[in-house]
């Protein structure tokens, strides 16, 4: 039984502190770690896997942020029990009503408090999951989740991985596919290059009397060193941006030795 759990103290953390010269084994190694432990993932970097375990191949996905349709309305002074929400027949419009009706005060005086607001609802709204509440400041908040379509063209975790495609003539091209939200206007998407990185950026703000939305996108990916940036092309098709560029043949991508030039003062020190 090991004294240290491999999840918290992997064996590789202590590999830099080897025993003194002449000692072939560490007497504490078997006491601290389980000698039959096969789940130490940190050791994987030292292996040349033939059949890689499944748990090492999994790529953790980023947590998904829920998309919602939200309505806020000032209902200060209205009884919360009088506020009602309903949809039209095709559920494309949300109607919010509230008010106590007419209250007679006598001598012909009366108070009539009532409101009605109508909002357009997106087609991908899950209207059966509507929630609403009133804040302490009298704000009515109505929320409904939005159905996000599963993109078939590119998987999210493979989206920013460039692919090299070769045609029948042997010409190689690097290709990058990037998914963009449906609500983004293509004219707001900007593509720039810096060093070997391609940067996709989009900023969009939409504001009306009943709606305010803001979208910010920033994606960055490194392309191969032999990419011909002068012939880089971007094509937008529906919600997918495809970036392609040819690869320059004969570009040396391997390691090379760079000679060191010695200054005169360095040569004198060496001769002395």
TrEMBL record:
Q: One GO molecular-function annotation for this sequence?
A: unfolded protein binding
Keyword check for Hydrolase, yes or no.
no
Question: Which InterPro entries does the record cross-reference, listed alphabetically?
Answer: A-crystallin/Hsp20_dom, Alpha-crystallin/sHSP_animal, HSP20-like_chaperone
- Keywords, sorted A to Z: Stress response
Cite a GO CC annotation: nucleus
Biological process (GO), any one: protein refolding
> Pfam families from the entry?
HSP20
Which PROSITE patterns did the record assign? SHSP
- Domain SHSP span(s) in chain numbering: 155-263
- Gene3D superfamilies given for it? 2.60.40.790
Does the entry feature the keyword Translocase, yes or no?
Answer: no
Which family is it part of? Answer: Belongs to the small heat shock protein (HSP20) family.
Name of the featured protein: SHSP domain-containing protein
Q: Which organism is it from?
A: Brachionus calyciflorus
High-level lineage: Eukaryota, Metazoa, Spiralia, Gnathifera, Rotifera
């Amino acid at each position: 039984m090991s004294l240290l759990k491999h999840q918290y103290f992997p064996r590789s953390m202590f590999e830099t502190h080897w025993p003194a010269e002449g000692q072939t084994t560490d007497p504490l190694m078997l006491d601290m770690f389980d000698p039959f432990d096969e789940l130490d993932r940190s050791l994987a970097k030292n292996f040349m896997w033939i059949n890689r375990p499944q748990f090492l191949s999994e790529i953790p996905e980023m947590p998904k942020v829920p998309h919602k349709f939200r309505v806020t309305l000032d209902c200060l002074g209205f009884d919360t029990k009088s506020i009602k929400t309903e949809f039209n027949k095709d559920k494309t419009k949300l109607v919010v009503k509230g008010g106590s009706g007419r209250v007679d005060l006598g001598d012909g005086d009366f108070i009539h408090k009532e409101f009605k607001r109508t909002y357009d609802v997106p087609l991908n709204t899950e209207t059966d999951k509507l929630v609403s509440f009133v804040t302490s400041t009298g704000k009515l908040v109505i929320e409904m989740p939005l159905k996000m379509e599963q993109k078939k063209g590119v998987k999210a975790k493979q989206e920013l991985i460039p692919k090299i495609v070769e045609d029948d003539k042997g010409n190689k091209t690097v290709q990058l596919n990037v998914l963009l939200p449906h609500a983004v206007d293509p004219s707001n998407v900007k593509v720039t290059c810096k060093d070997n990185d391609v940067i996709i950026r989009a900023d969009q703000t939409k504001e009306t009397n009943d709606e305010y939305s803001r979208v910010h996108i920033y994606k960055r990916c490194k392309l191969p060193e032999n990419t011909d940036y002068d012939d880089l092309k971007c094509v937008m098709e529906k919600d997918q941006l495809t970036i392609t560029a040819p690869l320059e043949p004969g570009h040396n991508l391997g390691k090379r030795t760079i000679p060191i030039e010695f200054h005169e003062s360095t040569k004198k020190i060496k001769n002395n």
